[in-house]
């Protein structure tokens, strides 16, 4: 059996790599980071540990039986092709509490106007009056709407309860009547948008979630706040820009975006539209799980998934 790693192993990963080799001496563990060698290495792989695979690469991997993803999202994989081949898919949700923490931090900073007051005071401007333009908004007692009641969403719900918030969950299947820390479930996105005061989007990207928050939904969110830590394209870019520019949304805090730098060393703006010109947007460069604890937790969980995959493939052999 050949387990193929398709990325450069840093010191932490290499330590686990060596332990796996000792733990499973009859299994071959291979690491290939050179893009030129990927296709050839895939031809003999029974399982692949990677953050990205194309359909053409999967078609070359005729022996492939499992894919182990070292993070949560699967949008860099043709999941339908993997499912057609009955290839097992493992990913990790170990970063969920940390992503939820960052999401809640973004909400507190947005409602608390912390970046704005910070920038003003650096210029000697004191926003000290009790006039409405100088007041910030508390999250306490608000109705928190959570779309995406997976691991991240459930952690957001737990944090919300510390602020005496009511939690409204959006879920297609509402047959499960009770979810911990969720006060109400609805499958009606229009009701969800109208009812929540602060809406958290923690959705994966799929055919059903792409542009889920479109103009028809965002126009109902007068005076509300949106925090997106799922995937940028779950919220329609043009509709979001319009809702913010026209003052329908009170504000948005975004950790996920519409344009990414890839390997471009030059500065890259995160969208096709100039969100950076708007005063009611809080920017975050997809950093929700970029803390040492989250990185280590994801590595540890991925290594456990590799162990599970090896044992399952041995059973099937």
Please outline the helices and strands:
Elements: E1 2-5, H1 11-23, E2 28-31, H2 38-42, E3 47-49, H3 55-60, E4 66-68, H4 79-84, E5 88-90, H5 96-112, H6 114-122, E6 143-147, H7 151-161, E7 166-170, E8 184-186, H8 189-195, E9 198-201, H9 215-218, E10 225-228, H10 237-245, E11 251-254, E12 281-283, H11 292-316
Parallel strand pairs: 1-2, 1-3, 3-4, 4-5, 6-7, 6-9, 7-8, 9-10, 10-11, 11-12
Helix pairs in contact: 5-7
Describe what you observe in this structure.
The chain is an alpha/beta fold. It folds into 2 domains: 2-94 and 293-316, NAD(P)-binding Rossmann-like Domain (Rossmann fold, 3-Layer(aba) Sandwich), CATH 3.40.50; 96-283, NAD(P)-binding Rossmann-like Domain (Rossmann fold), CATH 3.40.50. The chain is built from 11 helices and 12 strands. It has helices at residues 11-23, 38-42, 55-60, 79-84, 96-112, 114-122, 151-161, 189-195, 215-218, 237-245, 292-316, and strands at residues 2-5, 28-31, 47-49, 66-68, 88-90, 143-147, 166-170, 184-186, 198-201, 225-228, 251-254, 281-283. Helix 9 links the parallel strand 9 and strand 10 (225-228). Helix 5 (96-112) packs across helix 7 (151-161). The mean pLDDT is 95.
**Biggest sheet, spatial arrangement of strands:** 8-7-6-9-10-11-12
Specify the structural class.
alpha/beta
Please give the largest β-sheet: 7 strands, parallel
Number of domains: 2
Per DSSP, what share of the residues sits in E-state strands of 2 or more residues? 5-15%
* CATH secondary-structure class of the largest domain: Alpha Beta
Measured between the Cα atoms of the first and last residue, the distance is 9 Å
Question: What is the C-alpha radius of gyration, as a whole number of Å?
Answer: 22 Å
Shape: elongated
Helix % is 25-40%
């Amino acid at each position: 059996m050949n387990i193929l790693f398709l990325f450069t192993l840093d010191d932490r990963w290499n330590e686990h790599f060596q332990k796996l080799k000792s733990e499973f001496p009859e299994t071959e563990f291979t690491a290939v980071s050179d893009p030129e060698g990927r296709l050839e290495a895939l031809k003999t792989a029974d399982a692949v540990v990677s953050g990205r695979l194309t359909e053409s690469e999967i078609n070359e991997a005729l022996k492939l039986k499992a894919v182990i993803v070292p993070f949560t999202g699967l949008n860099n994989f043709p999941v339908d092709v993997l499912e057609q081949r009955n290839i097992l898919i493992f990913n990790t949700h170990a970063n969920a509490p940390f992503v939820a923490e960052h999401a809640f931090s973004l909400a507190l900073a947005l409602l608390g106007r912390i970046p704005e007051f910070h920038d003003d005071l650096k210029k000697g401007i004191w926003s000290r009056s009790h006039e409405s333009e100088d007041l910030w908004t508390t999250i306490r007692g608000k109705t928190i709407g959570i779309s995406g009641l997976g691991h991240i969403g459930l952690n957001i719900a737990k944090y919300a309860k510390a602020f005496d918030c009511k939690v409204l969950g959006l879920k297609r299947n509402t047959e499960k009547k009770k979810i911990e820390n969720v006060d109400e479930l609805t499958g009606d996105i229009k009701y969800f948008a109208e009812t929540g005061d602060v809406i958290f989007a923690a959705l994966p990207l799929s055919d059903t979630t792409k542009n889920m928050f479109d103009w028809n939904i965002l126009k109902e969110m007068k005076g509300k706040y949106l925090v997106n830590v799922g995937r940028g394209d779950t919220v329609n870019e043009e509709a979001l820009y319009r809702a913010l520019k026209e003052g329908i949304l009170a504000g948005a805090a975004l950790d996920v975006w519409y344009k990414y730098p890839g390997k471009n060393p030059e500065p890259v703006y995160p969208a096709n539209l100039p969100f950076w010109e708007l005063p009611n947007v809080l920017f975050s460069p997809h950093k929700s799980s970029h803390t040492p604890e989250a990185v280590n937790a994801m590595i540890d969980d991925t290594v456990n998934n590799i162990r599970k995959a090896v044992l399952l493939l041995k059973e099937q052999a």
